[in-house]
Amino acid sequence: MPWHVEEGVPCMQARDVQHLMDSPWMASPKLWHDSFKEQGLDVHIWVHDTLPSDLDRFVADHVAFTRSQLSFFGSFPVDEYHFLYLFPDREVRHGVEHEDSTVIAIGPADRVKSEEGYMEILGIASHELYHAWNVKRIRPAEWTPYDFTGPCPSALGYVAEGVTTYMGDLFLFESGIVDLKGWCALMTKLLERHVNNPGRLNMSVAESSFDTWLDGYRFGVPGRKGSIYVEGAVLAFLCDTRIMERTNGKASLSTAMRLLWERFGQPRIGLTADTYWDVLAEVAGERLDDLRRDHADGTKDTWDMLVHAMSTQGLTLTQSKDEKGLTRVTIK
Ligand SMILES: [Zn+2]
After folding, report:
1. How far is it, in rounded angstroms, from Cα 295 to Cα 302?
2. What separation in Å is there between the alpha carbon of 7 and the centre of ligand 1?
3. What is the largest CA-CA distance in the chain?
């Protein structure tokens, strides 16, 4: 939110109530701050409480994934973006997207200082920045604008959170923050969550998305439904590899997301499932109706599709059972 100082008092000015409710701010005597400019965008990083061990690396990694995402989309919705971090010395994991900022909380302090915790922060940060385009602008029609007076479930959680989860991780790889081995490790974790959730075979990710508005992230019956994050990201990976395969690598899901940004995000036209799949078909040069039918609207097992999708990237996907009976996934 733009701000200025009036008679010594900082003033923030919101366009409307939605903008006001979407603009978090922090006031603290111990705020660390740095900023950088990337492709015309002013990016600010604010940290309250625990600081990551290597602050130069922290900023450099933000520059890397921001640069990479901006290059793929070609433009950013606003002139200024703020990462607001709270790293308290207590157990917390949280990240929320806003139009021109994100609030991310991770703790305790030991986790923030560790390499694993550091990569977790970057994973969430990349995910939330991607939301500035996908969700805050490329937005399901049901949430355009968001109606706070009543329920507004959407079946498009697999685009809103699925594509964002997949792309957030992929941009860590595209920007060189993780190498291929690192990306495979992220995908292994994702696929193990996917194959070990029987709910994906019980309720489609589109229906699960609808239900997520009702039972949220915590209160669902175990094994009843899929996750818009996990199953949605798996579907995004299948779409991405399909488009690359059909176009000999000339286009990808990122090409489709850029078109969606230009045609729906920028003019703020609400997205429907039909328009989403139409744009993917346009980019792929053929319809992806089997993926929509079987893995967005249907509950068909994805394993064979996943093995093939990995093979298009020169990777081999296998599975085995561990001593607890859980499926373990290997990508080589
Ligand atoms: Zn998200």
Report:
1. 7
2. 39
3. 68
Surrounding residues of ion ligand 1, Cβ less than 5 A: 161
Structural Rg of the chain based on CA atoms: 20
Q: How far apart are CA 230 and CA 190, in angstroms?
A: 6
| Structure tokens that stand for 275 in this block | 């328009």
How remote is the CA of residue 28 from the centroid of ligand 1, in Å?
26
Q: What is the mean pLDDT of the chain?
A: 95
8 Å CB contact between 156 and 99: no
pLDDT in tens, 207-235: 999 988 777 666 577 788 999 999 999 99
> Distance from the CA of 80 to the center of ligand 1, in angstroms?
20
Task: Say what the pTM is.
Answer: 0.96
User: Which pairing describes strands 327-331 and 317-321: parallel, antiparallel, or unpaired?
Assistant: antiparallel
CA distances 272 to 53, 139, 142, 160, 175, Å, are 43, 9, 9, 12, 30
6-10, 59-63, 267-271, 273-277 — which is least confidently predicted?
A: 6-10
Show Cβ contacts of residue 182 under 8 Å, excluding neighbours closer than 6 positions.
172, 173
Q: How far is the CA of 129 from the centre of ligand 1 (A)?
A: 9
How far does residue 215's CA lie from ligand 1's centre (Å)?
Answer: 17
